[in-house]
Design goal:
This protein has 536 residues and is an alpha+beta fold. Helices cover 53% and strands 9% of the residues. The chain is built from 21 helices and ten strands. Strand 6 and strand 7 form a beta hairpin. The structure holds FE2/S2 (inorganic) cluster.
Length: 536
């Protein structure tokens, strides 16, 4: 049903454009009507009226080339439009046409705008095409059109999450995980600048689109639904990596009680193992944060991929380096009363780190602070020479993001443990795994005083604000910067005088100011060649 506003806007608005005689003489004319710049063409006896601004980048179509009577080529980047049926033959966005009428020798145009719902539907259809092709600029254009037609960009985002659902072979990625941090940044934008406020949404949709495109699906999430939701069956299905059963249970849970009905089970599953190098609990925490912003409408699009990712995730506690995690968890009794000390984690491997964590198991808050400090300390002292090394084995491909994850993981785990305190042992021991694993890749002797940011209360906010023009061609890097800065902002808001604050700010300062090697050509080829030689 049309609203009063849309009825008003669909009323025809005929305006005189040019006399037929003049058009016959000139064959084309640009007219300005109702604030619009319209090109009127006479070709092969037919009249066409359409926007003079090319829908690609706005250059004048009056300078284009007409062929076959009705095919117009924009000479800037060769987009082609069929003026007869309105189709864009080469390029993407739709060219707007205007109905015409001839009255008493004059050409009249209907310059009324379509109803907003039609404009939104068209923008959304265009956004879907841009999403499928990862056409970043078009994603931005269609979102701007959607918003101009009174659409809420978060509605468009919800659609994009649904489009991504069946395109992600392993479920949730950093695209969904960084989304609530982008939206927090959006909320913090003080200006009314619509373009500025659109940046976070464009980035999220661009990232989703990229991840889907790179995976070359589809990988449909089955529509099967269990008769009733049973939390034990659901959790066991995830534990057994039985994706079909877990998804069927998840669908039943969503139908019966919405996303919250799955939450406790998913929280337990996200921390049950040291898995996916800490991503699982981050994905879980961020999925619920995003669902809180977007509302129930996004539950399925966020939680079904999350269930898939939990079923498919790599469980590093099964590999030799982290096998001590299971026994340490089984032996956890919250009676360890050693005063935790961040410095004591320096140089300790996984087994020794887990022992240190257990020794302070009865000092939960102090242990948490010590682990946050130790994670930041390791990040501040990352041995950047690793990024230049090309002859090391694959397991030594350690870089900045391995360090930022220790902090982001602990931040997410803290929030999950606020609802599920019995998971603290998992969370703290898993941080011990991070510390032990990263310990080999730090240089404790290096000078770090130049990174001190104790006097810079604005550092975290400045880093976050810089994300709005980050300049990175690959989404994964700004996603990590955004996530670690947001994690520190959240932690410092809770504990402004945290003992680890100086070292965490220095670590962040170094991370955002040191160059990061983002592609390792020589190392990748050397490792591949060595591997192929050994495979026999
Ligand atoms: S502006 Fe017309 S094709 Fe680019």
């Amino acid at each position: 049903m049309q609203t009063a506003a849309s009825r008003q806007q669909t009323q025809a608005k005929w305006q005189k454009a040019i006399s037929l005689a003049e058009l016959e003489e000139r064959s084309k004319a640009i007219v300005k009507l109702d604030g619009k710049q319209i090109l009127v063409l006479l070709s092969a006896g037919r009249i066409y009226a359409f926007n003079n601004r090319c829908p690609h980048e706005g250059f004048p179509l009056a300078e284009g080339t007409l062929s076959e009577g009705c095919i117009l080529t924009c000479n800037w980047h060769s987009w082609r439009f069929n003026l007869e049926d309105g189709e864009t033959l080469v390029g993407g966005d739709t060219l707007r046409h205007y109905p015409h009428d001839i009255r008493d020798g004059d050409i009249w145009l209907d310059v009324s705008d379509p109803p907003p719902e039609a404009l939104r539907a068209r923008a959304l259809a265009g956004l879907r095409e841009a999403f499928d092709e990862h056409d970043y600029e078009r994603i931005a254009r269609e979102l701007a059109r959607f918003e101009r037609a009174d659409g809420d960009p978060l509605d468009a985002l919800t659609h994009a999450l649904e489009w991504a659902m069946d395109g992600l072979e392993f479920g949730t990625t950093h695209a969904q995980a960084a989304a609530p941090d982008w939206l927090a940044l959006r909320s913090a934008i003080a200006s009314d600048d619509a373009a500025e406020r659109l940046i976070p949404v464009v980035e999220i949709i661009g990232h989703l689109s990229w991840d889907v495109l790179m995976q070359k699906g589809p990988f449909p999430i089955p529509a099967d639904e269990a008769e009733r939701f049973d939390a034990d069956v659901f959790e066991q299905a995830i534990e057994d990596e039985n994706e079909a059963l877990a998804l069927a249970q998840a669908r039943a849970g969503l139908r019966a009680g919405g996303g919250q009905s799955l939450r406790a089970s998913l929280e337990r599953a996200s921390l049950r193992h040291y898995q996916n190098f800490g991503h699982s609990v981050i994905y879980l925490d961020k999925a619920y944060e995003l669902a809180g912003i977007l509302g129930d409408r996004a539950d399925a699009a966020l939680l079904l991929p999350l269930v898939r990712s939990l079923c498919q995730t790599a469980r590093e506690d099964l590999i030799p380096e982290f096998r001590a995690y299971g026994p340490a968890l089984a032996a956890w009794d919250s009676t360890g009363m050693d005063a935790p000390d961040a410095g004591s984690f320096r140089g300790k491997g996984v087994d020794a780190s887990l022992k240190l964590v257990r020794a302070s198991s009865g000092q939960r808050q102090a242990l948490y602070d010590a682990l946050m400090c130790a994670a930041a300390d390791a990040m501040l002292h990352y041995d950047a020479s690793y990024r230049e090394q090309t002859t090391k084995p694959v397991q030594e491909n350690i870089d900045w993001l391995d360090f930022t994850h220790a902090i982001t993981h602990l931040n997410a785990a803290r929030k999950v443990c606020a609802h599920q305190p019995e998971l603290w042992a998992n969370a703290l021991l898993q941080t011990g795994c991070f510390l032990g694993r990263n310990a080999k890749f730090v240089d404790w002797e290096q000078e770090t005083s130049q990174w001190s940011a104790t006097d810079n209360d604005q550092l975290v906010d400045d880093v976050l604000a810089s994300m709005l023009d980050h300049g990175e061609p690959l989404y994964i890097f700004p996603a990590h910067t955004l996530k670690v800065a947001t994690a520190l902002k959240e932690e410092l808001a809770l504990n402004p005088d945290a003992p680890w604050k100086p070292v965490a700010l220095a670590a962040l300062n170094r991370f955002v100011n040191e160059p990061m090697k983002k592609k390792h050509v020589r190392r990748a080829v050397a490792q591949a060649s060595r591997f192929v030689e050994l495979e026999g």
